[in-house]
Amino acid sequence: xxxxxxxxxxxxxxxxxxxxxxxxxxxxxxxxxxxxxxxxxxxxxxxxxxxxxxxxxxxxxxxxxxxxxxxxxxxxxxxxxxxxxxxxxxxxxxxxxxxxxxxxxxxxxxxxxxxxxxxxxxxxxxxxxxxxxxxxxxxxxxxxxxxxxxxxxxxxxxxxxxxxxxxxxxxxxxxxxxxxxxxxxxxxxxxxxxxxxxxxxxxxxxxxxxxxxxxxxxxxxxxxxxxxxxxxxxxxxxxxxxx
Length: 243
Known about the structure:
It is a single chain. The chain is α/β, with parallel strands linked by helices. The chain folds into 2 domains: 2-64, Alpha-Beta Plaits (2-Layer Sandwich); 68-241, Rossmann fold, CATH 3.40.50.150. The chain has helices spanning 12-22, 71-76, 93-101, 114-127, 172-175, 178-196, 214-230; strands at residues 2-5, 28-30, 42-45, 62-64, 83-87, 106-111, 132-135, 151-157, 199-208. Helix 6 packs parallel to helix 7. The chain is globular and about 55 Å long. It is an enzyme of class 2 (transferase).
């Protein structure tokens, strides 16, 4: 079980020591070292536990979040005072992480399902954070965003096949079909095209993509990249974090 330690309250190694003291000795494995392929805020527990067992959980000292998901806010690099859109934000782990790193950023958390946004609001309240929570279709920003409004940074953790949680839900890989991926690729392409128009000049859009479907879905991005590169309005560094 991975958790994210809120650096505004306590450093990762100190929280690991606190868990070992209050929960169980050597229960938390501190990943805060230069060779670990996880963010410095990530902490691995020996097994899954009730969150109420985590010290000061209700006060926002820690959040349950897989290590790979914690890279999104790290790579986005939002800064205080910037306007940030977290598209497809539910259940709010990345939104709250962005605000932990840049508490004075103006963050909008967007998701198409109102029922899932309740989790976003709950997480914001628990961590004592403020964000604008919007229900809307990321591929149609004209329906929920005023004309001319642009963002400094956009996080697009686009709708996917949930393969990122196969470790916790192994049945997923048996339920997905080839056609599902094609539909997702088309949808992600539509969202990317729409949100790109809402990015400020020299802004940053971080497009998070599941590794196992990278070849199929990335073709949509490659076409998008070629078009905008030819128009001289896209500078891109394509990287893949392999652990």
